[in-house]
Amino acid sequence: MSEKSLAVPGTLPALHLLLALGIVAIWGTNFVIMHEGLAQFSAFTLATLRFAFASIPLLPFLRWPKAPARMIALYGLLIGVGQFGLMLTAMQGHISPGIASVIIQAQAFFTVAIAVLVNGERLATTNVLGLFLCSAGIIAISLFAGGDADLLGILLVLGAALAWGTGNVVARRLGSVNPLGLVAWSNLFAVPPLAIAALAIDGPHKIVQSLVTADAGGWCAALWQSFGNALIGYGAWNWLLARHPASRIAPLGLLVPFFGLGASSLYLGEGLPAWKILAALTVVSGLAINISARRMPNR
Q: What is the distance between the alpha carbons of residues 199 and 215, in angstroms, rounded to a whole number?
């Protein structure tokens, strides 16, 4: 049976949907892994390691993507410095992994808004309703976060979500480029500014000390950021963005909070009160409405 035969008009093909679900599972559980990595490395040191490992060793084996250098660099800066630099900074004492996994999903709204403004994509009424429900769930979690997040942490993660959403639109504009090549070469542009930020904030002594004293768990967390989260996650995500409207792919990332909240509860003991569960269900309801909506033709 072909991939197309499994598709329902107006929805993603089944195999593409399963791939997207696998990606969000990786991304959701990754918040716990980032938390463990931040226990041994500073935010910008961990980010530098993540993007260096996901770039430099792979460059001899991957061709430069067939795309303008400025677009590759822009994507790398948005995802590397914008998304991960801000998010890891927030998670270093300003927001819990579970709450961060929810707030970062504002990327879906930023992606859709930018795609509508820049690419001329149109939304059906059901798309708007779905996004409204998703936003209501995220706002509820923000309001009731309490000790799980402070204002700075929420603002930093919202900034990371804006950078991720913009990066989604850039990736879609690049079209059908080699997804692994895009991730590896774009990551190279993120390494210098992240390293400079680490040196400026932490200083050489603190960086060297963390590299020397980190145990196997810390290095495994850094390596998983590179190969599991970056190469597998973002490589496959960009492959999907090149084949479907951003307004249909980006909202699937709203499932990340369930994996994030679940992993944080199981491994870190983060509480799951009724309001968190209700807010998460609101997010999923909006997602279900949005992914079942028919695609509207471009303007």
A: 22
> DSSP string covering 238-291, please?
HHHHTTS-HHHHGGGGGGHHHHHHHHHHHHH-----HHHHHHHHHHHHHHHHHH
Say if residue 24's pLDDT is above 90.
no
What does the angle CA 83 – CA 87 – CA 91 come to, to the nearest 5 degrees?
170
pTM over 0.85: no
How far apart, in Å, do the first and last CA atoms of the chain sit? Answer: 34
Does the pLDDT at position 2 exceed 80? no
- List for the chain the helix, strand, coil content (%; round to 5): 80, 0, 20
Q: Are 147 and 99 in contact (CB under 8 A)?
A: no
Query: What are the tens digits of pLDDT across the range 147-159?
Result: 777 889 889 999 9
